[in-house]
Design goal:
Arc Repressor Mutant, subunit A, 3-stranded antiparallel β-sheet, 63% helix, mainly alpha
Length: 277
């Protein structure tokens, strides 16, 4: 009895793609099959005239999809260091196959192109030098990027206490100079708020503020009080007079952080219309 031979597709042509010397167009039985990366072509040992079964066709497709996703990941990593989670999220924009994504991420990680600890250490060095962020703020950002807590804690060791203090003193001084029109108490408050926002610990904040030289600013404290007082006077003079005007000016200056003693001394030297009332 004659057995009917099942037709097996044959590779009839392998042509280099125009514009990409590392990719090839594969033709089966004279018809275009798919574009294939050079690595997959060599790995499978495909050649013109080769018969290829349906199972092998599926294998080719699978390997090519892996290769494309891996190429995408490698190009993403060419620009700068990335966390494992960043690479994973980037691949999810291209593929919904989570198993494939995890497989590719694992391969690249094994090759050494993804290392969250190396990334975290580099990130800490950059942020403490360029942005002068405190350890807390840097750690929060690393956790957002998917870096494991263990790696974050190890990377924190890159940020020595003396560097933290130097950065905090710089930031506090810059804040103080930008708020020189405020009272001494308000300047201290603004410095503290800014350093908290930047992610510094309470002990570093206190030590940094203590080291900021506010001599010039404090010498001008009376001038700032007079300036603020005159502004308050202009604001309230149409609404009050005499003792009521004095009370409103006093409260306004008190809210701005000037000491009650300094305010009282200044007001005592200032004759206000209606004082005799």
């Amino acid at each position: 009895m004659c057995t009917r031979r099942v037709n097996v597709p044959k590779i009839t042509s392998i042509a280099l793609q125009k514009g990409d010397r590392h990719r090839y167009n594969i033709y089966l039985d004279g018809e275009f099959f798919l574009g294939l990366s050079e690595n997959v072509l060599v790995h499978l040992g495909l050649y013109k005239g080769m018969e290829i079964s349906k199972q092998e066709i599926e294998e080719v497709k699978e390997l090519e999809q892996d290769a494309q996703l891996k190429t995408l990941a490698m190009r993403y990593l060419e620009r700068r260091l990335r966390t494992e989670q960043e690479v994973r999220d980037h691949l999810k924009e291209e593929s919904e196959d989570l198993d494939r994504i995890e497989r590719i991420v694992a391969q690249i990680k094994e090759m050494g192109y993804i290392n969250d600890l190396v990334y975290a250490e580099s990130y800490v060095r950059t942020q403490m030098r360029v942005q002068k962020l405190g350890p807390k703020a840097i750690s929060r950002e690393l956790i957002k990027k998917g870096v494991p807590l263990e790696d974050v804690q190890k990377a924190e060791g890159e940020y020595k206490k003396e560097i933290q203090l130097a950065n905090a003193v710089y930031l506090a001084g810059k804040t103080a100079r930008s708020k020189k029109s405020l009272s001494d108490r308000q300047i201290h408050q603004k410095m503290q708020e800014h350093l908290i926002k930047k992610g510094y610990s309470s002990d570093v904040i206190q030590e940094a503020i203590d080291q900021v030289d506010l001599t010039d600013l404090l010498e001008n404290q009376k001038d700032r009080l007079i300036q603020a007082g005159e502004k308050a006077y202009r604001t309230y003079q149409s609404k009050a007079s005499g003792k009521e005007l004095r009370r409103k000016v006093y409260q306004s200056l008190l809210r701005k952080g000037f000491s009650s003693e300094d305010i009282a001394n200044w007001l005592s030297e200032l004759p206000l219309e209606g004082d005799a009332e």
